[in-house]
Amino acid sequence: MDSLFKAFNDPTRRSILELLRTRSMTAGEIAEACSVGKPTVSHHLDLLMRADLIAQEKEGQFRRYHLNTSVVEDLMLWLGKLLPGDAAGAPAPEVSQDSNPPNP
Questions:
Q1: Is the pTM for the entire model greater than 0.85?
Q2: If one looks up domain 2-79 in CATH, what number appears?
């Protein structure tokens, strides 16, 4: 989980994720779209792959990177559990102001 939050902590990595949301891209295409150098993009891609947020496929002499949506979906489900109420939008149960817990 720490690697996920580290990956999301950088604006360039967030931009890369947004780019890959629409289509797979090569490192060169990503570097051009983000206006950064290829070594910088390689570093960011490495961190995103370590977090399993992206995957790569070899296509001829190039590697195409794409978003790993299953990890993003798992993260969203986990984050959703932190919100009060259930997934259907029902309100969370009221917490009693009584300092003593109920007896079973």
A1: no
A2: 1.10.10.10
